Amino acid sequence: MRRALVLWTAAIGCGGDPSSSAGASETTTGTETTTATTGPTSSSTTAPTTTGAPLLPGECESPIEPVLLTSARVGLDAEGRMLDEHGRDVLLRGVNTGGRSKWAPFVPFPIDAEAEQAAFAAEAEQFFARLPGWGVNVVRLLFSWEALEPTPGQYDARYLDRYAAMVDVAWSHGLRVVVDFHQDIYTSTFCGDGFPPWTLPQDPPPEPHTCPDADWGLKYVLDGDVRAAFDRFWAGEDDLHAKFFAMWGQMIAKVGDHPGVVGLEILNEPGSGTAGDVAAWKHETLNPFHTEAVAQLRALAGDELLILFNNPGTDAVGFQPIEHVRPEGSGLVYAAHMYDPGLVKGLPAVGLMPEPFLDSIADFAAAEGLGVLIGEFGYGHGATGAEEWLARALDHMDARRLSATLWECSQNEVAWNEEDLSVLEADGSERDTLDVFVRPYLRAVAGTDSAFAWDQKTATASWTGDGGISEIALPTRRFDAASLDIELTTQAGPEGACWTLDPSRGELRVQAPDGAQVEVRVTVVD
């Protein structure tokens, strides 16, 4: 065993040089420093070289080069683990580009509606460049059918170009993209978002609701117009299903083959309409629709992308036990949402504990061979007890190895329906939610039997290696200039495991021989 005390003096931090994630990276092994050219369009699994007898566990004699990806794609094994192109078990940890994307101009940051594409791309660069410093490696990127097809059969080319530009910029920073068709209470007519108003019945059209509406979520169960709109959609009236999949065809044609896209999410928080028995409705209506959607999206996009599905919003707040239902098809990810009903409103918690909720999702997914990405979780700014709730949620996601995207990250000059969940202020400055959310995690495992825990001072990771390179994310926002005690031990199997610390990429890379059971402890030294 070797121990090393490392003074982290990374050249970047949150808000630093946006190009650092795709440029030169400084790597520290305790005795050597090297420069390695990196970027998301190259691939490397170069192993460290050693001389003489095998090293005891500790720093590498020669730095482990970054493991670079040619594509964001991941596959699923029989247990639902997400495997990257190098066969590593990867965890996706990220954010939703949320509230500001719900109304014109339907993007997560301020931009003039008439801005040229170059100016838009520059603003997108500024927005996404900060995320790798948080340890983020995925974004759930909302899109709106209302924005894409404002009138029947007429698609907005500028909106598609802007969406594609955001995918480009995100991937240039190593961020995978989940393409998410997002709706809330169906459409803007009801103070919601997503579906175009022209999909509503026109004889007579419903009266527009008064907005904003802080209690908008109750409309799923109390508002006759909203419930009727969903009934109409599920019945496929006026060929709405065909129009829905034609809309998806436009989005897939634009970005479906982009190397930065990891998956397609069918429909955010589908409403159950006038169904009185939600569990039965899931079996009789929602699940057949999801199965049809999987087949349609596969026909449009092929088999490489993940397809994500989730539940009605009423499931997300724990009002009743969730009826878990699996669509037919392969490469599926259960993207359930999780909110405490009090915290989401900025009020004290009312009792949704993360651990049993997450266990229910994880157990079902494991039994059904599904991947898991908790698509939304978060809280209203300033809610009492929220930091503890979030830390508990992240602790259990780490323990069960569940991918997740926090709701939300956008710059909201006006709060959508009085919601206040963003990790950013309107001017782009950061909120203290990030002090909890930004933390280490076991991002990629070259091997099996992994475990990870973080106690606010020490990150402890273990796994059985397969000879490849594993990664522990140590986000620069949290660890920039920190003193770290790094301890690597071999519990069983062959010796020779070693590590390389890469401050500019915010990661600790570890290579363990095939069959070596290793443990890594990274402790912040006061």
UniProtKB/TrEMBL annotation:
<comment type="similarity">
    <text>Belongs to the glycosyl hydrolase 5 (cellulase A) family.</text>
</comment>
<dbReference type="GO" id="GO:0004553">
    <property type="term" value="F:hydrolase activity, hydrolyzing O-glycosyl compounds"/>
</dbReference>
<feature type="domain" description="Glycoside hydrolase family 5">
    <location>
        <begin position="84"/>
        <end position="412"/>
    </location>
</feature>
<dbReference type="InterPro" id="IPR017853">
    <property type="entry name" value="GH"/>
</dbReference>
<feature type="compositionally biased region" description="Low complexity">
    <location>
        <begin position="18"/>
        <end position="58"/>
    </location>
</feature>
<dbReference type="Pfam" id="PF00150">
    <property type="entry name" value="Cellulase"/>
</dbReference>
<keyword id="KW-0378">Hydrolase</keyword>
<keyword id="KW-0326">Glycosidase</keyword>
<protein>
    <submittedName>
        <fullName>Cellulase family glycosylhydrolase</fullName>
    </submittedName>
</protein>
<dbReference type="InterPro" id="IPR013780">
    <property type="entry name" value="Glyco_hydro_b"/>
</dbReference>
<dbReference type="InterPro" id="IPR052066">
    <property type="entry name" value="Glycosphingolipid_Hydrolases"/>
</dbReference>
<feature type="region of interest" description="Disordered">
    <location>
        <begin position="16"/>
        <end position="60"/>
    </location>
</feature>
<dbReference type="InterPro" id="IPR001547">
    <property type="entry name" value="Glyco_hydro_5"/>
</dbReference>
<dbReference type="GO" id="GO:0000272">
    <property type="term" value="P:polysaccharide catabolic process"/>
</dbReference>
